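The following block was generated as part of the benchmark described in Methods. Ligand: pyridoxal-5'-phosphate.
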Amino acid sequence: MELDWLLALPLPENMPRQRVLYHRLREAILSGRLAAGTRLPASRSLATSLKLARNTVLFAYEQLVAEGCLLADRQGTRVALLPVCAMGPSSSGRGTAVPLKLSSRAAAALQPEPAREAAVLPFAPGTPDYGAFPFRTWRACLERAWRDAGWRQLGYAAHGGDPALRAAMAAHLTTIRGLAVDPAQIVITSGTQAALDLCARLLADHGDTVWVENPGYLAARVAFGLAGLRVHDIPVDSEGLAPSEEDWRGHSPRLIMITPSHQYPTGRVMSLSRRLSLIERARQASAWIIEDDYDSEFRRTGPAPPALFGLQPDVPVVYVGTFSKTLYPGLRLGYLVLPHAIAADFARATTQATRPGQGVEQRALADFIERGYYTAHLRRMRARYGARQVALRIALKAAFGRSVELSGGEAGLHLVMWLPEGICDTEVAARAAALGLGVRALGSYTRAPMTCNGLVLGYGNLEEGMIAEAVQRLVVAVESQVIPPHEN
Ligand SMILES: Cc1ncc(COP(=O)(O)O)c(C=O)c1O
């Protein structure tokens, strides 16, 4: 039998030669090119005609016999009778092809993404100071955790996460955030994103409505969209989320996602009266409020406003925190604080939904908090980010004039610079990207009919000494968008 074509086809990259014959034969059998019952040449003669070692042919035959593609008996080797698969575009006429793409729900929910490297460019939002991370102290905590690791750390995590970490976080939140929290109310997650995903799946049903802030945190929209929720945009004003009567009546929410300590991205702080009325209306609507308290650790002007979670007893609020900004995002650890009534069920459901782990990292983090390193690191970073923000404000005012409108300075790692009409933020951001800046356009977080025109300027990973030069580049980006009067 003429089988030279088996090796004439292009070889898959990096495939060891020994496996090529096996793969080619398997492809030919599964696609029907070698029909059921076809007798294959004896291994010695195939090896001679293909100029291969006999062992290569034997390997291919034995492997294919073991998989059920070939049958070997006293008369030799022949192709087994198998359902023939339609393989490749040339055979797409055979039956309905599975669409080789993500679901339409995923396609609708996913967002355009900046390149990974953009996260370390000057002004990239959401990035902590990687250089200031206490590597040595953290490594010592990890080493201790590994030294003491047993089956509890190497197996799946306990319901709700490592007990020591839950206890350490409860004590930390009570001291730093004034929340009377019991460790049993805490569920450790793989960051905020996993927490939002869990809330979507465990607190809402498919097709329920979730309110998100407009402008708002894009990753939250992704989590909710992927979970099959109806995402409804609510405008944000100077006091925070501002739903209308029409929103309450016509788009009654099951979940309401907010960032009240430092609205992302505008940086505004939700007023107390807005917090209280939101709780009241959420109760009436049987809705859960998801309070993403990211960045509250980096509050500069006095203590952070009280969290909705602790404002009244039994509030329908789930509190979300993360170590992505306070330590580093790749750690993938965050937490939920839940009302007593659902905490145990939520912890159990989290175990079943995600099979969580990271026992060693969780134990190291508990150690890091218990020894006071976390609080000391936060104190140091708060001062550092505060100084950076002051330097950035001064540089922006010097470059764009004293009347330039800045917001979001009370907490966090970014400022918003509002742009006057006539200068388009997305065009400035594109120009800035070409100049090596990671600035984001406020418009990219905004959905119609809401309009916002400004720049989100992250300074978490921007050394003070680099601010002046980065602002000069920003001036070039903005000026390139200013239309000279004679062109109007
Ligand atoms: C509003 C907001 N919440 C939370 C996070 C942190 O998300 P994660 O914990 O998934 O890293 C970010 C990160 O940029 C954020 O902007």
